[in-house]
Amino acid sequence: MKTRYIVYTLLILLFGAFVAYRIKANSEKAGAGGRGGARGGAPGGAAAPPVPVNGIVVQPKNFSNSLSVTGSLEANEQIEIRAEVAGVIKSLNFQEGSNVRRGQVLLKINDIELQAQLSQALTREKLASETEYRAGLLLKKEAISKEEYDIALADKRALQAATQLIRAQISRTVVVAPFSGRIGLRSVSVGGYITPATVVASLISMDPIKVIFSVPEKYAQQMRNGSEIQFTAAGSDKQQSARVYAINPGINATSRTLQIAARASNPAGDLLPGSFAKVILPLATISDAILIPSEAIIPVEQGKKVFVSRNGKAEEVIIETSTRTEKEVLVTSGLQAGDTVLTTGIMALKRDSPVRVKITAN
Question: CA dist 230 to 43, 71, 217, 322, Å?
Answer without folding.
Answer: 62, 12, 20, 21
